[in-house]
């Protein structure tokens, strides 16, 4: 419990610093998204947070506005037809996730934790219940993200989330943080139409 309080302070400080430092990048992406296709800059979607409480996750929009709503990418017949040119770059580099810094500042997410499931992804939510993974703060990145991401099947993803819960602590969070930096640089596990939950229609 004590670590949770420390973790929240660390999350808040790092997120505020990131928001300030990355503000020029945010401005560039704002312009790129608006010039690329019509529609809003940001994309909000209902997700499942700690204790299965719903909240609106924030992302940069990477898909056309006529894309079917609340549908995981792997359930779309041809997801590439909906992804914008800028969106393809944002997804490959995971820059579309950056606005979740503000979800972290609001206390809806942590930097490290199980990725928040889509509100109607009942199979994943049910699997996570088996491991207590719905009872911890959801994260911008986590143990499952550096161990397969979009390549993972639902049951394995839930087991990895459960492993994170079991080993949760400062050293585990540091491991996930630096593992994420490496995965992002290598674009590991990013598969459009994969079974992961991170990339959903926008």
TrEMBL record:
GO molecular function, a single term: phosphotransferase activity, for other substituted phosphate groups
Domain Bacterial sugar transferase positions: 7-186
Keyword match Flavoprotein: no
Transmembrane segments: 12-33
The keyword Transferase is annotated on this UniProt entry: yes
Record keywords, A-Z: Membrane, Transferase, Transmembrane, Transmembrane helix
Pfam families in the record: Bac_transf
Family according to the record: Belongs to the bacterial sugar transferase family.
Protein name as it appears in the record: Bacterial sugar transferase
Lineage of source species: Bacteria, Bacillati, Bacillota, Bacilli, Lactobacillales
């Amino acid at each position: 419990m004590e670590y949770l309080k420390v973790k929240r302070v660390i999350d808040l400080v790092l997120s505020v610093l990131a928001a300030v430092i990355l503000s020029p990048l945010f401005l560039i992406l704002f312009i790129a998204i608006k010039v690329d296709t019509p529609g809003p800059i940001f994309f909000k979607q209902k997700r499942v947070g700690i204790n299965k409480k719903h909240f609106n996750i924030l992302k940069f929009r990477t898909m056309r506005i006529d894309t079917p709503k609340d549908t995981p990418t792997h359930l779309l017949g041809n997801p590439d037809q909906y992804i914008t040119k800028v969106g393809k770059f944002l997804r490959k580099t995971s820059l579309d996730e950056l606005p979740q810094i503000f979800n972290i500042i609001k206390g809806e997410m942590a930097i490290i934790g199980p990725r928040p499931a889509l509100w109607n992804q009942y199979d994943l939510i049910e699997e996570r219940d088996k491991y207590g993974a719905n009872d911890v703060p959801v994260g911008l990145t986590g143990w499952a993200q550096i161990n397969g991401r979009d390549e993972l099947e639902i049951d394995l993803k839930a087991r990895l989330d459960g492993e994170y819960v079991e080993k949760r602590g400062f050293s585990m969070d540091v491991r996930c943080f630096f593992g994420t930096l490496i995965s992002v640089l290598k674009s590991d596990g990013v598969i459009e139409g994969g079974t992961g939950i991170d990339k959903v229609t926008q």
